[in-house]
Amino acid sequence: MPNEETPAPAALVGVRVGDPGRLALYEAGALVLKAGDQVVVESDLGAVVGTVERLPLPAALAGRRPRRVLRRADSNDVGRAEWNQTREREALRLCAERIREHGLAMKLIHATRAAEGGKIVFYFAAEDRIDFRELVRELAHLLHTRVELKQVGARDEARLVGAVGPCGRELCCSTWINDFAVVSVKMAKAQGLALNPTKLAGMCGRLKCCLRYEYDTYVELGRRLPAVGKKAESLKGSGVVTRQNLFAQTVVLRRDDGTEVEATLAELVAKKAP
């Protein structure tokens, strides 16, 4: 019997969950929602309350199958969420105090408490590996719940803290990016960007995630033109390619006499195969 494909979600909504809030896509199902509605959604730590901010959204944006909106939030759900956030702030303060007392070289970032109260997760950043076993035992005793500490990298730290990027918008990692893809200097080179670390680095100190957004387009446009340093023939004469103008689809050729001429893609002469 052939495997049946998982049907694509019929409707997606952008829901901001947590504090600091992070916008994520959820499957709304048959629910008719509007911006500002508070809903209960699935999460790693159980059902949590979030606020609808964007709708409707095409299913193609989901990538992988998103989690579901369980129901509209009622007054009990909202009250429980507010109480939970208060407990998270108290736990964060308590953990910070214990870190100072133990003299641990770690930077506490965020705390997330399960809706049912059975577990709390602390996120921290550190340069090296930290032995926090004694800290976990002490926090579990004081908070009367399971405690987990997770060390995160620079990108995850920026995502959890949240900020506004140089573009004037909230960081992509803290609003809609679910998975961090590899970003390399090669992507900046392909787009003709100056290799200035202060310009290419994001708030996390790593290469900006947005360097990936137009990279494939630049690569595709570059494939149509002869590479810089290659010799090419055109209706205006032959020469060595010194520059590419990807969007205009032209190249600048330096001829044997030292003069330069700009040739369009249509003016380039294709070399015949031997």
Describe the 3D structure:
The chain has seven helices and 13 strands. By secondary structure, the chain is of the alpha+beta class. The strands form three sheets. The protein has a five-stranded mixed barrel. The protein has a five-stranded antiparallel sheet with strand order 12-11-10-9-13, with no helix packed on it. Strands 6-7-8 form a three-stranded mixed sheet, sandwiched between helices. The chain is elongated.
List the helices and strands and how they pair.
Blueprint: E1 12-17, E2 22-27, E3 38-41, E4 48-57, E5 67-72, H1 75-102, E6 107-113, E7 119-125, H2 133-143, E8 146-151, H3 154-161, H4 172-175, H5 185-190, H6 197-200, H7 215-223, E9 231-234, E10 237-245, E11 250-254, E12 260-264, E13 268-269
Parallel strand pairs: 2-5, 7-8
Antiparallel strand pairs: 1-2, 1-4, 3-4, 3-5, 6-7, 9-10, 9-13, 10-11, 11-12
Helix pairs in contact: 1-2
Question: What is shown here, in short?
Answer:
The protein is an alpha+beta fold. It has helices spanning 75-102, 133-143, 154-161, 172-175, 185-190, 197-200, 215-223, and strands at residues 12-17, 22-27, 38-41, 48-57, 67-72, 107-113, 119-125, 146-151, 231-234, 237-245, 250-254, 260-264, 268-269.
